Amino acid sequence: MSLLSEINTDQLPNHIAIIMDGNGRWAKSKGLLRSIGHQNGAKTVKEIVETCAKINVKYLTLYAFSTENWNRPKLEVELLMKLLISSLKKEVKTLQKNNIKLSTIGNLNSLPTKVAKELKDVIEKTKDNNRLTLTLALSYGSQEELIKTIKEISLKVKNNLISPENIDKSVINNHLYDHYLPDVDLLIRTSGEQRISNFLLWEIAYAELFFSDILWPDFNKENLFEAILNYQNRERRFGKTSDQLK
Ligand code: FPP
Fold it and tell me: Residue 245: what pLDDT?
């Protein structure tokens, strides 16, 4: 029986973020090329995105390519970029059918022109969708994002557009790559690694962390339900005591 029946639909995480890890190890364990691991990882992306839309999660953010991933072998980087373009072309219909809005965070200027063009196209086509916002983190690094934010705010202070005492959480939020992204409620990382790897450092301040041993290509909707159930059984205190929450 599906774990879905055990999920309390009134207490879903509003924003799920996922570090999709283990494509390479999945391929290696089967004697396959890393590229096949990434292709199967893309199939998992489709299943998890459709499931989040179906159960009414409002925000899903996927770590698809980090700033550090540029250091991978050239051929692998090229393959990941091609996979991104083909997935976008193929799945734009799925996004429309499920009322999903695509968005991105990261240094998009560093992406190949073809990728940036395809992304812009799908972002434009899906801009009025409102069931789920799917954000792809591409050429993304949280520390770089915070440096960019600090530079922009410093410049405004220098030009007397804002005074230092007025800098608060919302000012910082407004300077991040995508200021519509709410704080993360549940952060999932697959493949057994227990690291944050420069992902959404600001937005995960109060996120619940869930580490799964499953490699990303094998991760499926039941594993997602397991993570959500685990999240629902935790007490989120946001610095308060248990008694204060009652
Ligand atoms: C981590 O596995 C995964 C990535 C670096 C890229 C994620 C990309 C996909 C899931 C494919 C396509 C994505 C979209 C959005 C269509 P790894 O290569 O680091 O695995 P390893 O740690 O086992 O080597």
Answer: 78
Q: Is 87 in the pocket of ligand 1 (CB under 6 A)?
A: yes
Helix/strand/coil for 50: helix
Query: Rounded distance, CA 88 to CA 85, Å?
Result: 5
C-alpha–C-alpha distance, residues 42 and 217, integer Å: 8
Give me the phi and psi of 206, to 5 degrees please.
-120, 20
The secondary element (H helix, E strand) that includes residue 63 is strand 59-66
> What pLDDT is recorded for position 95?
98
69 is catalytic: yes
d(CA 219, CA 126): 26
Burial-class residue 70 by CB neighbours within 10 Å (0-12, 13-18, 19+). Answer: exposed
Q: With a cut of 50, which residues of the chain have pLDDT below it?
A: none
Largest CA distance in the chain: 61
pLDDT digits (tens, 9 = 90+) for 48-92: 999 999 999 999 999 999 999 999 999 999 999 999 999 999 999
Structure tokens at 122: 């799908």
Q: Which helix (H) or strand (E) holds 17?
A: strand 15-19
100-105 sheet: strands from edge to edge:
100-105, 132-140, 59-66, 15-19, 186-189, 208-211
Specify the ligand 1 atom closest to the Cα of 28.
23
Check pocket membership of 145 for ligand 1, CB cut-off 6 A. no
Place of tokens 């199939």: 43
**What pLDDT, on a 0 to 100 scale, did the predictor assign at position 1?**
87
